[in-house]
Every structure is written in structure tokens, then in C-alpha cells.
Amino acid sequence: MLWILAVAAAYYVTGRLGLLQRLVVAGAQVTPLWLPTGIAVAALLWRGPRIWPGIALGTYLVIRTLGPVAPSGVAIIAGNTLAPLCAYALLRRARFRPELDRLRDGLALVFLGGLLPMLLSATVGTGVLALAGSLPWSDFWPVWAAWWAGDAMGVLVGTPVLLALPMTGLPRDVYRTAEAVALSAAAVLVTLVVTRSSLSLLFLVFPLLIWAAVRFQLAGAAPCALLISAAAVSAATDRAGPFAHHSTLEIMANLMALNGCVALTALLLSALVTEQNNVRLKIQQACEDLAELVNRLSPRARG
């Protein structure tokens, strides 16, 4: 029960924060980055499908803040609950490991955890709005694409941060601590500058992601990706920097492309580096075991 209430509270709080950065696409309000979906998938991976009432309750509370819950709202609650459950089922079937220490785990989270199952919530949500008359059928696809992108980006950006929490800690090495501080400061400074500058400098975030993924793996890359996506969404809703003088659909397209590339770079590169590091450690351990075995047999051979 405590986990269910905690998931509902986290869903509601991040949902309210997400609504502050909403955009109007074809007359419908959508969020480019819906972090509650990422929280729902992470909670399911941690505690299993028993916490699904927390997802449903959190969705209800968010919808309730916008007005009375109509029958279409009940369908949206069902869609927003079933999509993370579908993601959990697909990830379990793919033998996904929350440590994200293999490239296949990164690919599984991208496609089986984010892109594919979030088609369900987007289709149900947009479909019931169209059927209820709240959304013209001519505007179905733009709203559907924005809804799907927001839910999918919530998984690709939000879930890795939560999964990395058990692995996060202060480095014991002084130089590693200094490097982590330098990376954090550079990430904040560069992200704020490029997302608010009128120049097209968004590509400068990718060296930061590579630095974070290579040196700190998921614990460094996931927070950087979340910072970049959140700053980009904030600039887009304010129509500032590279998002100024563009239509809403153009802004959504740019955000989808940027957030998708950021999430893919952070997830796949950190998983690949972690997998290679684990292979290197296994080879090193095998060599040490072999050397120890040779040392033990050498006296017997001489005798």
C-alpha cells in the first residue's frame, strides 16, 4: 500500500510539473515530456505489476486537476495504466536487467519500454478525445504524434534516472569527484546556453553526453539527458532560443528529434561502455585465476 501511494504521489507531482510546460497542438493540450510514464515503468520494474493502482490513481488525480472526470477521462486512465504494464511485460519477456549493463538492455528499454507500448496510451487517449467530440478527426494525427512522443520520452529520459539511483554514489577517488563536479557544472552551463541562444548550438550537448556515458556510464549519462530534455522543453514552451519564430508543430518536431537523439545516445553508449567494462573485468579475473593456478602447479612440476 505504501508503494502504491508513493507511486500515485510521484505520478501526480511530476504530472503537475509537466502540465506547466504543456503546448497546444491542434487545439489540444499536450506535454512534450511526460515524466509520470517513466516513473510508472520504473516502479513496475522495481515492485512488479502489483503497484498498478498507484499509476491509475495518479492519472486520475492529474486529470481531476483539469476538471471533472468524464467517461473519456476514464478511458485515458485505462490507457495510461495499460501502456506501462505492457512495457513491463515486454521488458520481462526480453529478460531486461534494470542495471542496464548490456547493450541489449538499452535497446530493449528504447523499443520495448518506450516507443512500442506508448502507442497504446497515445491511441486510446487521442481516440477517446476524437470520439467524444473534444478533438476534430482532422487533427487526430498531430495530437496522436505529440502524445506518443511525450509518453515515450518520459520513459527514455525518466526511467534511466530512477534505475541509476541504486548505482549512484560519490566517487572515492578525489580526481573522480573533481571530474564529476566539472561534468555537472559544464552540463548545466552548456545546456542553459544552447537552449536559450538564438544560434543553432544544440549539437554541443552531445560531447557532454559522450563524456558522461564513457566516464560515468548510466549514473552520469541519465541525469545529463534529463537535464538537457527538461531545459529544451522549457525553452520550447517559452519559444526562446532555437525554438523562436517556429510554429507549434515545428517546435514539437524539433523537440522530438532532439530528445530522441539525446536519450538514444545516453542509453546506448552508457550500456555499451558498461558491457565492455564488465567483459574486461571478467577477462582480467580469468587471467588472475589462471596465474594463480599456474603458481600452485609450478612447485609440483619441479618436484
Q: How would you describe this protein?
A:
With 303 residues, the chain is an all-alpha fold. It has ten helices and two strands. Helix 5 packs antiparallel against helix 7. The chain is globular. The model has no long low-confidence stretch (mean pLDDT 86).
List keywords for this structure.
two-stranded antiparallel sheet; mainly alpha; 303 residues
Give start-end ranges of low-pLDDT stretches. Answer: none
Cross-sheet strand order for the largest sheet:
1-2
Cα distance, first to last residue?
A: 68 Å
Strands, total number: 2
What can be said about the biggest beta sheet?
Answer: 2 strands, antiparallel
Radius of gyration: 22 Å
| Broad shape | globular
Give the overall pLDDT as a whole number: 86
Structural class assignment: mainly alpha
Following the backbone from N to C, one meets helices and strands in this order, namely HEEHHHHHHHHH
SS summary, helix count: 10
Any chance you could write out the topology, listing elements then pairs?
Layout: H1 2-19, E1 23-25, E2 28-30, H2 35-47, H3 52-66, H4 71-93, H5 103-115, H6 118-131, H7 140-164, H8 174-196, H9 205-237, H10 248-302
Antiparallel strand pairs: 1-2
Short description:
The chain is mainly alpha-helical and 303 residues long. The chain is 77% helix and 2% strand.
